[in-house]
Amino acid sequence: MSTRPTVTLYIAISLDGFIIRPKGQLEWLSKDNKTDEDYGYNAFFSRMDGLIMGRNTFDDVLSLGVWPYSGKTAYVLTDQDDINADGVIPFTGTGEELMAQIGQQHQQLWLVGGSETVKGFLNHGLVDEVILSLLPVTKGEGNPLFLPTGRQQPWKLAGMRTFGSGLVQLHYHKEAA
Amino acid sequence: MSTRPTVTLYIAISLDGFIIRPKGQLEWLSKDNKTDEDYGYNAFFSRMDGLIMGRNTFDDVLSLGVWPYSGKTAYVLTDQDDINADGVIPFTGTGEELMAQIGQQHQQLWLVGGSETVKGFLNHGLVDEVILSLLPVTKGEGNPLFLPTGRQQPWKLAGMRTFGSGLVQLHYHKEAA
Questions:
Q1: Which of A130, A138, A151 comes nearest B146 by C-beta?
Q2: Mean pLDDT value across residues B135-156
Q3: How far apart, in whole angstroms, are the C-alpha atoms of residue A112 and residue B68?
Q4: Cβ contacts of residue B98 below 8 Å, gap of 6+?
Q5: Which residues of B touch A139 (CB under 8 A)?
Q6: How would you class B105 by CB atoms within 10 Å of its CB: exposed for 0-12, middle for 13-18, buried for 19 or more?
Q7: Residue A38: how many CB atoms within 10 A of its CB?
Q8: ipTM > 0.90 for the complex
Q9: Is B111 helix (H, G, I), strand (E, B) or coil?
């Protein structure tokens, strides 16, 4: 049995690998017209009991004006311990140190992003599951989800779904390297 | 009707977006054991009547010791006009200039890679079709397929296939921007 919670990287990217930021996600979902299609988000969200994100992602989400993660503890990796918000726990160390501190307090953690935070987790083999939503667009610019880590890691394809909008959702589990 | 040939970007990348180079492809295919599975390659290859690649990709393929594209004209974008090989046409201009020169000599061109060549084609809206083979591995380093172009482009999902090895093949057609 694992002595730490499962970490799931669940994120939307463009076909050319750039992170779709929260505002871009809302724009794309509304452009799509199918406002009743949640792409499995609610089922995923209720499966998670905590969130991890970097400071830039946190600030990005805050800029939406509504905190969409109420009811779940959110850990924010940040250099500046200046966050004071309900249910949000700032952490001024590495992802590895955060995971050690969290210990058994959570079972299922959602790794929200962004690039630097994901890099740190991948680099230490701390991502157990990847759910990528691939939007049918090449953005041509932005923050690439995957930065070089120097670490190779095989994954097992656990499933995939396509949607009428052209979104492809790919689901992977970590394999023994 | 189009006044130029259709250009298809057909390429294998890792889950983290790095190009799987020819040697890496062979290694992966042999590791997979299913040597009778060609992932649709032969059907695709016979549909093409010409190839375009950059100089680094050309040198990479040459290093295999066997030229795998016999019978199809291969255009190589290169700064140094020092290539003298059967069926290989060096071209010392941009992708846009090459397409203008090719004109109606071809119907279906395979854009083989690499990053810089693909960037030039995407940047000028010269890619009509994308077939991405996504290997179930994060490589952690290499040449990213998609460099920033500054150009946003929507795509229409035309199909997808999964294989027992975990390879996912995604097929897109260009959409009006």
A1: A138
A2: 97
A3: 43
A4: B52, B75, B77, B91
A5: 152
A6: exposed
A7: 12
A8: yes
A9: strand
